[in-house]
Write a structure and sequence with these properties.
By secondary structure, this protein is mainly α. It is 35% helix and 0% strand. It is built from five helices and no strands. The radius of gyration is 19 Å and the shape is elongated.
């Protein structure tokens, strides 16, 4: 909730029909003055590029129908950035496995 805000029925359709919420066992703030807006993700992870922030935003959607799929996320231009490619290469080398963009180690 701190990163993307408190879910609402518009951000997660059917939320108010969930048993714990419908039976008032869990109370969500509903008044505007009870809901603080979430912070800008760029202030939390300032090292991310615009493509990285866009991907993170798509991954953090409450509604799974609006959330980016793993396959679509992997095709994001964020993973084509030189710093990310270098990190992937370093990580795969540390595991002694080949990455999809490099030839296997003999």
């Amino acid at each position: 909730c701190e990163l993307i805000g408190i879910p609402t029925d518009s951000s997660l359709p059917g939320l108010m029909d969930l048993p714990l919420i419908a039976e008032n066992k869990i109370r969500l703030p509903l008044a505007a003055d009870e809901i603080a807006p979430p912070p800008e993700l760029g202030t939390i992870v300032p090292e991310l590029s615009e493509d990285g922030l866009e991907l993170l935003t798509q991954m953090l959607k409450y509604n799974p129908l609006e959330r980016v799929s793993a396959a679509a996320a992997r095709r994001s231009s964020y993973f084509e950035e030189p710093s990310v490619i270098a990190l992937q290469s370093s990580f795969t080398q540390s595991l002694n496995v080949s990455s999809p963009t490099t030839a296997p180690n003999p």
